[in-house]
Amino acid sequence: MNTIFTLSQFVHITAGALALVLFWMPAILKKGSANHSRFGRYYVYAMYTVAATGVAMATTGLIDPLAVIKQPAANADALAAQIADRKNAWIFLIYISLLTLVTVRHGVLVLRYKTQRQSLKSPLHLSLILSLTLLGPVMALWGYQEKLILAVIFGLLGTTVGAGFLRYSFKATLTKFEWWIEHLGAMIGSGIACYTAFFAFGGSRLFIDHGNLRLLSWTLPGVVGFVVIRYLSGKYQRRFAD
């Protein structure tokens, strides 16, 4: 178990670091160019790897928590609290991995098929979106009970994102180039998940003694991402309407 966890953790961190950088490449490169497409694919591969290894790490940690705790507490009560804390982190990691997978996959399919939305209604894609949507309230309630604000935020976010994907997939008609706005929103959403996970599981150590800064680092990617999505959606809607 420890070997699986260690390998998954190494690949997860490596792919996550690459994704943090690659996220910006398609954004700054000319849309539709060869480099835009190439770096977009690299980002997608990195994010799929992040999601898969995140689930592998979390599953391993939930099955055998003692095998993956590097410095277990000597006191029985402290150890129990340590295990409970790690289990909470692994549960949250599974959900944010699901969010990452669904947003990236949806963005890729929307771009690939544009107005042809049959692939968005495949059993696999719909099951992933429904899982994200229906598990969101469960995650939010669990986070409230465990006093985990990130679980509450991302449970609600996951439900909102999933419901939006379902609406897009089944709406009767699309406006001109609406597929492009949907693709953009999905990919930015995946970036929000990536940056939030970074600050929650790694970067937050930078602010370990500063509670307010730690909370800000968790929520800022989502706030910035939401503002950017709204701005770009309005911008492209006005451009395509002209």
Provide a concise account of the structure shown.
By secondary structure, the chain is an all-alpha fold.
Structure description:
- This protein has 242 residues and is mostly helical.
- 82% of the residues lie in helices and 0% in strands.
- The longest helix has 38 residues, at 76-113.
| Number of DSSP strand runs | 0
Strand content: under 5%
Mean pLDDT: 83
Structural class estimated from helices and strands? mainly alpha
Distance between the termini: 58 Å
SSE succession:
HHHHHHHHH
Q: What would you call the shape?
A: globular
Given the structure, what is the number of helices? 9
Low-confidence stretches: 206-211
Q: How much helical structure, as a percent, in the residues?
A: over 70%
Q: Biggest sheet, in brief?
A: none
Rg over alpha carbons: 19 Å
